[in-house]
Please model this.
Amino acid sequence: MAIVGAGAAGLMAAIASSRAGGRTVLFDRRRKVGAKILMSGGTRCNVTNASVSERDYVTSSGPFVRKVLRQFPPEETREFFERLGVKLKLEPTGKFFPVSDSAGDVLTALLRAVDAERVELRRDITVDGISRRNDGLTVATSEGELYVSSVVLATGGLSYPQTGSDGLGYRIAERLGHSIVRTSAALTPLIASPPIHAGLAGITLDAKLRVVSRSRIVAERFGSLLFTHAGYSGPVVLDISRHWERASWEDPDAQVLASFAAGRSQEDFDAHILAEAARAPRRHVANLLAAIVPQRLAETLMAGSGISAGTMLSGLGRDVRRRLVDSVCALRLPVDRVAGFGKAEVTAGGIPLLEVRARDMSSKIVDGLYFAGEILDVDGYIGGFNFQWAWSTGWVAGTAAAKRAAAFRHPRTPLG
Ligand SMILES: Cc1cc2nc3c(=O)[nH]c(=O)nc-3n(C[C@H](O)[C@H](O)[C@H](O)COP(=O)(O)OP(=O)(O)OC[C@H]3O[C@@H](n4cnc5c(N)ncnc54)[C@H](O)[C@@H]3O)c2cc1C
Model:
């Protein structure tokens, strides 16, 4: 059997298929495989999360994702890596990283396992197409053809194309009759043009971000926000980016609103200001804001609300107070566009789940074809969820493809 793509999903599929008895050839167009693993988690590789469920993904089918995760849950991921000699540690955020803080250790362990399982890893070979032949599939590569019983397509999406994933996998699947859910960059910074918050560049703070379109909250995420010279970044921005991008396809006026009020609603924050004004009327507005946001942002919020420095709480009129509450609880972050695939950790869209069986990741359209990883129409939030998707789908697809290969003893199949 053949696996196309030696990223996280393909490496896992290759190990699983060999352990299930398959004779496996793993193709990658790049000499240096697993590039995304190396760059992941700030080169620390956030392997998985303490708690993973379908709610950590944006998907057209929660039950599909749940079913796949159940077959290879995060506990198995952890055990799998520990057995390969990669000790993992849990951070307070729920993220698991290698104890060594080295993504290189994760990749090295996977490549050692690939080697130990006698997977034939063929680097620098591009798979250009797959076609049906008899009961099997012919894989056309830059170095000739291979006839196999089953193929796992694990070519990734469109993010960081310099790592080898440029969307060719989608075209291969399309030529076989699959459709593709429109793709977009996900987990990517947002660009503001003009960058009206550039003066705040470098400030990081916790915020709740909402994407609002046509008076409806499309998405809401909480986490760390970073103001940059070009716009906005940080985990909460990356998480919200795919929602803004897709909302803006339908509604050019879709907005990103930020709340810095530490979980308080606008009414609660308004009541808090009133209570403080009653308790300490001479307290400065700047002092009250400094308790929740960095000073530079406090000054910006005050200026935006028409409040001069030195204003005391007692001096806040009703309208001005309301404007301040709006700024703190629903500050509009103007967005021009997402930073795009060149800076996106993952791709939203891809192979529709409706065209795949959750029990074994097999194609409903092409016998012998399986999918794993980012190529599918599932994208996870920040936190190790995308790798967990790659490990789970890779494991399920690799195991199932090997079983098919074992049952498939065609006289003209040189390779099970
Ligand atoms: C900067 C960055 C940081 C990240 N950090 C994290 C993190 O800490 N935690 C987390 O969970 N996720 C993280 N991610 C996301 C995670 O890396 C991806 O979800 C995951 O790598 C997807 O794995 P994949 O195997 O499906 O695809 P890929 O890793 O993209 O692998 C696809 C492989 O297929 C090969 N290929 C493509 N087409 C062909 C072809 N036609 N023929 C032969 N080979 C082909 C490519 O060369 C590539 O090696 C990060 C991503 C980036 C970019």
